[in-house]
Design goal:
4 helices; alpha+beta; 15 strands; Metallo-beta-lactamase, Chain A
């Protein structure tokens, strides 16, 4: 199924929250430059694109849609699907965690689009192994705020499951690709608060986030 644009409302079942935060954006947040419409495009799985007309961010894009019956199988991105559905250019890619259905396609998309890649050390280790230039990496810990083009991005530490108790494995720096589907460990989990053109969107790609000391607004 191709990506679908959603303007301006979202179905309640989708895993994305629109937040109306009264507090002004931080000093590092870009100032709205125009009345350009902000569009949201659902990419399938946990994937989204947010755009202001001239610029865009991708969140957890996974166009390959590949779930092997044997999780020990080596997996590679579906380059045909990526070429068909990924934009020609995007300012950044935000990765919530390092499971294959969030990360598998990301290095290939980053190399095609020139995007800045945002995520955990495990996510960036996979990107290194795939040949994405390190100068385009942003390693996140949760709680910081930074700009990518006109977008203000604020990572929020999350949990992979509703009940907590995650046992996140990590992906080492010396990996070789392709690697088995089950070696794409969850690692650290992040949700992303994105502000652009006076709009605020909170992307939640897993069932839970850490509330205490981690308020998104």
């Amino acid at each position: 199924m191709p990506p679908r644009s959603i303007i301006p409302s979202l179905a309640a079942a989708l895993t994305l929250s629109l937040l109306a935060c009264a507090r002004a954006p931080s000093a590092s947040a870009p100032t709205p430059s125009s009345a350009a419409p902000v569009t949201l495009t659902y990419l399938g799985a946990a994937g989204w694109q947010v755009a202001d007309g001239a610029h865009s961010l991708l969140i957890d894009p996974f166009f390959s849609r590949f779930y092997p019956e044997d999780e020990t199988s080596l997996v590679s991105p579906d380059e045909t699907a990526i070429a068909r559905y990924a934009p020609a250019h995007t300012e950044g890619i935000l990765v919530g965690h390092s499971h294959a259905d969030h990360l598998l396609d990301v290095p290939s998309i980053a190399k095609r689009t020139g995007a800045t890649l945002v995520g955990s050390e495990s996510t960036l280790n996979v990107a290194r192994a795939a040949g994405v230039p390190e100068q385009r990496f942003i390693l996140v810990r949760g709680g910081e705020t930074f700009a990518i083009g006109p977008f203000s991005v604020h990572p929020v530490r999350g949990l992979h499951g509703l009940a907590g108790g995650d046992r996140p494995g990590t992906i080492p720096r010396d990996i070789k690709l392709p690697m088995p589907f089950n070696k794409y460990e969850v690692a650290e989990v992040f949700q992303y608060l994105v502000r652009v053109e006076g709009r605020t969107v909170f992307f939640i790609g897993t069932p839970n986030f850490i509330e205490r000391g981690n308020r998104p607004c």
